[in-house]
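Researcher: I'm preparing a figure for a lab meeting and need a structural model of a single chain. I don't have an experimental structure, so a prediction will have to do for now. The sequence is pasted below. Please return the structure as C-alpha cells so I can convert it later.
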Amino acid sequence: MDKTCRVPPPEGYQQWSAQDRFEDRNGPIFIHSTQNPPAGRGLLTFLAQQRHCNGGGAVHGGMLMTFADSALFAIARRAFEGDHGVTVTMNNEFVAAAWPGEWIDAEGELVRKTKTGLMFVRGRLFSGEKTILLFSGVIKRIKPRAAAAGPAS
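Model: Understood. Here is the structure written out cell by cell.
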C-alpha cells in the first residue's frame, strides 16, 4: 500500500478497520474511540485529499457514498452482536460540495432493528456546520462465513 497517503487520526479517534482493505485504501477512515464523539464531530471521520476529488476539484460523489456506506455499519455496530452484514439498499441526497483539506464527519441513528436481522439507519455527512450529504439505508445481519473448504458447487 502507498504509505504517502497516510494521515494520523484526529484526537479521540482510531482507525476504523485495519482489516477492510477497501476502506483502508479509500480512507483511512477513523472512528471515535468512545463511540460518543464531542459536539460538532461525527462517529466516523476522514480527511478529504486530492486523491478523493473529481475533475472539478470537489470530493467525488462516489467517495462520499463509500464513506456513507461505512457509516451505516458504524452507526448500527452494536446491533450486529458479533455477526457481519451487507447493504441491502442505500439512498443518498447530495446537499453541498466537499473540498480537499476538509475533515468529513458522519453521524446518524439506528432507526429500527427487526427480528429477521434488517437494520434501518439514517444519517448525514458534514464538515463543521455544513451538511454535505444525507443518507439512509437498510443493512442485513448475516452470520460470518466459515472458512471455505473449496469452491462452492
